[in-house]
Amino acid sequence: MGGDHLEAALDVLNRHGRVAACGAISQYNATEAPCGPDNMGNLIKNSLTLEGFTMGDHMDVAAEFTEKMTGWFREGRIRYDETVVEGLENAVDAFLDMMKGENKGKMVVKL
Taking the complete model, does pTM exceed 0.70, yes or no? Predict the structure, then answer.
């Protein structure tokens, strides 16, 4: 969960800081321990809170989120990474690559 990015965040969080943890798909089929973080002790030292979430926890604000996010995408204020694989015939390989964490951002199969 998080790897190098989480490790860097844990080093600079303020006391009582919070981290939202969402997803761990790259680790579903892991056969060895993931890299970092090795500073999880900061959770205790700084009284940090890590809290998981899903979109289903926030359906009450989904419409507002969609409206604002759509505008931000149109304005170019939001950027994202994605791996695009061409063709339905490559969907299985794309899925397997995603499960191994070999994609960058969202995995998309373009039909």
Answer: no
